[in-house]
Amino acid sequence: MEAYKQEFIEFMVESQVLKFGEFTLKSGRKSPFFMNAGAYVTGTQLRRLGEYYAKAIHDNYGLDFDVLFGPAYKGIPLSVATTMAISELYGKDIRYCSNRKEVKDHGDTGILLGSKLKDGDRVVIIEDVTTSGKSIEETFPILKEQANVEIKGLMVSLNRMERGKGDKSALEEIQEKYGFPANAIVTMEEVVEKLYNQECGGKVIIDDAIKAAIDAYYEQYGAK
After folding, report:
1. Cα four-point dihedral sign 164, 219, 56, 181
2. Is the peptide bond preceding residue 73 cis, with omega within 30 degrees of 0?
């Protein structure tokens, strides 16, 4: 596993973004782990988060694209932090773009924040995590209504590796439905590999009991 992936897993735990216990998801599933990107709240955390996303985007999609699109609301700071990190790490200027939940009819009008989109723009979409693919269902039409853009791929922070609407993971379903690749900085399999019976911040995060709960969860909800 790449060093930045291992660092990112520790970073999620230290930032209390990735937690283990018992959580009820929006889908109604009872999950032994939960990720909340809203817990990244400081400048230092956002700077580091942008760097991890930048490295994963570079590894998966290269830098031959024009716009990083972050769907409102959580995607807005992600797109800003990551375009800054791409500039800092790789010396490449990528435009950032996000959508508004409500169309603005005065001043800077329209549904977009940041850069406008134009025909031929190559776009990477950035999100925190996707469980069902619902946000892409909302985002994809917005992008296509603005301009004839080419979507190079989707990058999320964590692949939960559980079934979406069918037997495959939400990321695989997105890839099949929309025809662009969908990747994550890390997968839950990598998280377990890194944290199981290993100390992080002075304590074991995934012990035998939590590992058993994760295994049982995937037995029921894991993607085929």
Report:
1. negative
2. yes
Which region among 32-46, 51-65, 160-174 has the lowest average model confidence (pLDDT)? 160-174
What CA–CA distance (Å, rounded) separates 101 from 139? Answer: 11
- pLDDT tens figures, 150-168: 999 999 999 999 988 888 9
196 and 10 Cβ atoms separated by less than 8 Å: no
Catalytic: 104? Answer: yes
Model pTM above 0.90: yes
Structure tokens at 129: 């995590």
Catalytic residue among 104, 116, 144, 165: 104
Helical H segments across the chain, by residue range: 3-14, 43-61, 75-90, 134-146, 170-178, 188-195, 208-221
Q: Known catalytic residue: 106? A: yes
Tokens of 145: 């209504």
Q: Are 168 and 176 in contact (CB under 8 A)?
A: yes
Among the listed residues 55, 92, 101, 106, the single catalytic one is 106
Mean pLDDT on 4-14:
97
Q: Report, in angstroms and rounded to the nearest whole number, the Rg of the chain calculated over CA atoms.
A: 18
